Amino acid sequence: MALKPRIETAFERLLFQSRWLMAPFYAGLALALLMLLVVFLRDLFYYLPKAFLMAPGAGLTSNDAILAVLTLVDLSLAGNLLLIVMFSGYENFVSKLDLEGEQDRPPWMGTVDFSGLKMKLIASIVAISGIQLLKFFMNIGKDGAPIDTQEAMWGVIIHLAFVLSGVLLALMDWLTAKTDKH
């Protein structure tokens, strides 16, 4: 058997090492997570004092409290999504995280493949979209402004598109699992 030409071996090594070009993307996502934390804390500290105001019309109504909590949950889901993409993407495409002896390593780390990552991604997007749609519907009639039926219709259409995309991705993964590997 002939040895590979040195130029081919060097090129393949270069291609293999190019995976490290993704590392700055994951570092950027960590900074985006920090950005989400800042927004989360800003919103929390904005709404928290309002929850304790007792004067009529000064504090949060139950709808306002629900909307505030939904906003915080939305930010939390986005943060979870960032973590999943950062860890799974890094481990699937760049390098394994060497965390030997780490006691609180989440059990899913190192086990989420690209297919699982897609499913977690679309499930998070559907949840975030659903929360945004719920917030829209809870704000209807709040300011006395007429309902923007076109905005409501597009919100529902976009949410249903995300749901349909999730169902189709799950179906494709299921069909792929059923077929023989070549």
3D architecture notes:
- It is a multi-pass membrane protein.
- Belongs to the UPF0114 family.
- With 182 residues, the chain is an all-alpha fold.
- The protein has five helices and no strands.
- The protein has helices spanning 6-17, 23-51, 62-93, 114-138, 149-178.
- Helix 4 packs antiparallel against helix 5.
- The longest helix has 32 residues, at 62-93.
- The radius of gyration is 23 Å and the shape is elongated.
- The mean pLDDT is 84.
H/E series? HHHHH
Instruction: State the end-to-end CA separation.
Output: 25 Å
- Low-pLDDT residue spans: none
User: Given the structure, what is the number of helices?
Assistant: 5
Number of strands: 0
Tell me the overall shape: elongated
Mean pLDDT reading: 84
The biggest beta sheet is recorded as: none
Q: Please give the domain count.
A: 1
The percent range for strand residues is: under 5%
Structural class based on helices, strands and sheet pairing: mainly alpha
User: How much helical structure, as a percent, in the residues?
Assistant: over 70%
- Measured on Cα atoms, how large is the radius of gyration? 23 Å
Protein name: UPF0114 protein GCM10009422_04400
Keywords: Cell membrane, Membrane, Transmembrane, Transmembrane helix
Main location: membrane
Membrane topology: Multi-pass membrane protein
